[in-house]
Amino acid sequence: MRASLAVVALAVFALVSCKKDTDEQKLYKILDAGVAELEAGNVKGAMEFVAEDFSDDAGLDKQTIRGVLAGQVLRGSRITIMRRDEKVKVDGDTATATLDVALFQGDRSKMKGVVPERSGTYRFTITFRRDESEWLITKAKYEAISAGSFIVNSIGN
Which residues pair with 97 in a beta bridge? Predict the structure, then answer.
């Protein structure tokens, strides 16, 4: 009896582990991984998700963004990123993610009860392109939003 339960459990595990993520799930995982890399100060890891032809709405390219982030890390500046109201829409080999972000200067593990030295709240629109089986960020647009808007939109999330 126990052997047959073990076989059934193994079969269920095999089926679950073979299940492929949807494109939307893959993109949410990319957002999660990119944020984790940035918070850890791993610029190289975060930039793996960015296409070589990336540009943002201010005209900055991948190399410039990499340099800005590397400069922050070299100065010992850590950031904490909070995300709210995330939506991903896939259209063939392109996708768009919109999300509200609060950025804080400081290490997440040391921020409880502390007012950050610098912070900002933004609405990001990120465009992805599928290159073969990999999704890469090709464009980013952002605009400042009020901290109140970020908080109000996060109630209930």
Answer: 88, 126
